[in-house]
């Protein structure tokens, strides 16, 4: 009740004169001679959502072009239309004239036409202005990285609230702007600009002090400009591996797009009392590239590292540390069946800066006082996720690390990530969301280590997305698993079997001895994996996690991996125990 009242109030407040929006965005210009200054009631990028008073932004897309729907938007009462000057469809209209199938008999409700260099960029600028720049009234923290974003958002949000700092969040899994947590039904991790600023405005109206925003490379890319007009107080970078190259075009572009998060940190220069904070994984080879971008904003640079793998730290890490102001390290670490234990060491810059050379990173860390931390969530990578949160809370909000350690001991896991299913079956069954080569390299060794019998992996790869990662996923899985059941993830308009064969090829060519089954239907694949599993085996189901649908050529079909897996177990006669 409380929240819907607040939302109603917010909507009423949110009407703006077109002239105010034009003043906020200097890349938009009126393209007609009228002096009309309508009141704009909503900013819309899809004609199907237009209502009376909407300002419709025509956006060229991958499947169609929003400029084709201008007439529809006008029919539905759009008060203003923003079109892109360099749009192909618009250029063709100018060159060839209006096509015969373009509706001409609509009753125009005195719309105003506005030309923009980029309608997406204009949409972002207007969205921030329309909601009166909510980010300026909140402490905004962005999380980016190929893997670990949603988990880090969830942990940081829990920690902030447990430490008495009211915070909202937006992530792939869910969002919270008031007291209620809602599932994210958008199928977008970072929503479009009008939704981002609306959600932040809701948080502000609901008395939140901080906002944690999952900031994907898509959202940070100038191609979508979803986050272009968001300024951040703090930013965390988890890691980067092969993903989404079909969208970004190349790895350097992907890295650069992610780094936009650090380029969008509030500039600390004029007001050193309000220093923005950049938290960056020192184990990542791109640490220095990102740290340099953060330094341009005069941000405080926090490195974090955990001794997860036998060969840590990477060779360049000690040298890269010179770019950091402080280091948060977890060493040693201990993986438990139901969580992790580690020693937190906060190393001040004075320990390495200006000191005689020669001290290794390990020595620096070992010489620093340790604070024991317990994390009741399995998966060694969650140590990294919590370390990032710890650095951010300590350096941006000055929370004592002892208090953070206390709150971390009460953290709860995230839907669809490392969820064990207990139905009395003789084998272990786990649902997890790993779906990138990076996360595969993290989770497979963990599964292998804890599996007494055969490791059976059920997974697929996304259709119409990064095709190059498919054989890599196959090869990594083949290295660790005994049996692969390769299946649908979200084939979209691609043929399921084409995707599955791409993955199988990688598994076969890796040279590892592995049994491969190709079963497109995911329910049948899970069921087949369970029927193959015996005493001591482990079945892992990867890549769907929390997702509420499978997208195929036939459209979106409802899906809940955990429920489907539980159904399959029940059909085998096992009954739920936890
Ligand atoms: C690849 C990508 O970013 N796609 C986004 C893009 O879609 P598109 O280019 O296919 O759009 P389109 O269908 O060609 O339509 C063009 C324009 O016409 C409009 N339109 C279309 C039909 C109509 O009847 N009327 C109308 O006005 C559309 O709303 C759109 O504005 O523009 C749409 C509207 O702005 C987005 O919803 C859509 O995100 C889709 C849902 C998507 O799947 N995005 C994924 C790839 C994504 O962004 N993922 C990242 C997470 C990645 C990670 O896991 O790390 C994310 O941040 O969510
Ligand atoms: N720090 C990490 N490093 C590597 N793998 C991780 C890390 N954290 C989580 N994972 C693995 O990646 C999977 C996805 O985690 P999470 O949802 O937090 O990532 P994400 O970046 O939000 O992914 P997406 O953007 O696709 O939603 C988890 O199920 C786990 O297997």
UniProtKB/TrEMBL annotation:
Entry cofactors: Mg(2+)
Subcellular location: Cytoplasm
Entry keyword annotation includes Calcium: no
UniProt entry tagged with the keyword Cytoplasm: yes
Domain Mur ligase N-terminal catalytic, first and last residues per copy: 40-130
UniProt-listed GO biological process terms: cell division; cell wall organization; peptidoglycan biosynthetic process; regulation of cell shape
GO cellular component terms listed in the entry, alphabetical order: cytoplasm
Enzyme class: ligase
Protein EC: 6.3.2.-
Residues reported in the UniProt entry to bind UDP-N-acetyl-alpha-D-muramoyl-L-alanyl-D-glutamate: 47, 189-190, 216, 226
Residues noted as binding ATP in the record, renumbered to the chain: 145-151
N6-carboxylysine, modified sites: 258
Posttranslational modification: Carboxylation is probably crucial for Mg(2+) binding and, consequently, for the gamma-phosphate positioning of ATP.
InterPro entries per UniProt: Mur-like_cat_sf, Mur_ligase_C, Mur_ligase_C_dom_sf, Mur_ligase_cen, Mur_ligase_N, MurE/MurF_N, UDP-N-AcMur-Glu-dNH2Pim_ligase
Known role: Catalyzes the addition of an amino acid to the nucleotide precursor UDP-N-acetylmuramoyl-L-alanyl-D-glutamate (UMAG) in the biosynthesis of bacterial cell-wall peptidoglycan.
NCBIfam families according to UniProt: murE
Protein name: UDP-N-acetylmuramyl-tripeptide synthetase
Record organism: Salinispira pacifica
């Amino acid at each position: 009740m409380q929240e819907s009242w607040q939302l109603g109030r917010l909507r009423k407040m949110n009407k703006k004169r077109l002239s105010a929006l034009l003043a906020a965005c200097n890349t938009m210009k009126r393209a007609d001679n009228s002096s009309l200054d309508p009141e704009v009631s909503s900013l819309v990028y899809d004609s199907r959502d237009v209502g009376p008073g909407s300002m419709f932004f025509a956006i060229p897309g991958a499947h169609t072009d929003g400029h084709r729907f201008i007439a529809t938007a006008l029919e539905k009462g759009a008060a203003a239309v923003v079109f892109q000057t360099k749009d192909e469809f618009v250029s063709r209209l100018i060159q060839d004239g209006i096509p015969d199938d373009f509706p001409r008999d609509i009753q125009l409700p005195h719309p105003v036409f506005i030309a923009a260099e980029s309608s997406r960029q204009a949409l972002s600028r207007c969205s921030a202005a329309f909601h009166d720049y909510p980010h300026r009234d909140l402490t905004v923290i962005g999380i980016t990285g190929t893997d670990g974003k949603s988990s880090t958002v969830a942990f940081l949000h829990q920690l902030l609230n447990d430490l008495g700092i009211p915070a909202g969040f937006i992530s792939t899994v869910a969002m919270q702007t008031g007291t209620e947590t809602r599932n994210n039904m958008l199928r977008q991790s970072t929503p479009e600009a009008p939704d981002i600023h609306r959600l932040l405005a809701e948080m502000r109206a609901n008395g939140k002090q901080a906002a944690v925003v999952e900031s994907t490379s898509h959202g940070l890319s100038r191609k979508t400009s979803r986050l272009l007009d968001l300024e951040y107080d703090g930013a965390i970078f988890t890691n980067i591996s092969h993903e989404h190259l079909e969208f970004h075009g190349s790895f350097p572009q992907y890295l650069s797009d992610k780094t936009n998060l650090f380029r969008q940190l509030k500039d600390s220069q004029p007001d050193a009392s309000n220093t923005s904070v950049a938290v960056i994984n020192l184990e990542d080879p791109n640490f220095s590239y990102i740290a340099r971008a953060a330094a341009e904003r005069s941000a405080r640079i926090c490195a974090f590292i955990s001794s997860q793998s036998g060969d840590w730290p990477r060779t360049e890490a000690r040298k890269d540390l010179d770019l950091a102001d402080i280091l948060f390290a977890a060493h040693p670490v201990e993986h438990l069946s139901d969580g992790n234990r580690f020693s937190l060491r906060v190393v001040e810059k004075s320990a390495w800066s200006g000191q005689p050379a020669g001290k290794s990173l390990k020595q620096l860390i070992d010489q620093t006082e340790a604070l024991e931390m317990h994390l009741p969530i399995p998966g060694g990578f969650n140590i990294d996720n919590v370390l990032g949160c710890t650095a951010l809370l300590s350096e941006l909000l000055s929370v004592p690390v002892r208090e953070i350690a206390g709150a971390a001991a009460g953290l709860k896991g995230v839907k669809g990530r490392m969820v064990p299913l207990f139905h009395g079956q003789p084998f272990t069954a786990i649902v997890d969301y790993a779906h990138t080569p990076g996360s595969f390299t993290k989770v497979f060794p963990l599964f292998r280590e804890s599996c007494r019998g055969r490791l059976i992996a059920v997974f697929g790869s996304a259709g119409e997305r990064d095709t190059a990662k498919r054989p890599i996923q196959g090869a990594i899985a083949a290295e660790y698993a005994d049996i692969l059941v390769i299946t649908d993830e979200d084939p979209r308009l691609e043929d399921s079997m084409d995707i599955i064969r791409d993955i199988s090829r990688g598994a076969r060519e890796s040279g590892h001895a592995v049994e491969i089954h190709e079963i497109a239907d995911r329910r049948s694949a899970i069921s087949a994996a369970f029927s193959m599993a015996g005493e001591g085996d482990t079945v892992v189901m990867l890549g769907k996690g929390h997702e509420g649908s499978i997208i195929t050529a036939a459209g979106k079909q409802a899906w809940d991996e955990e429920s489907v897996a539980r159904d399959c177990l029940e059909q085998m006669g096992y009954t739920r125990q936890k």
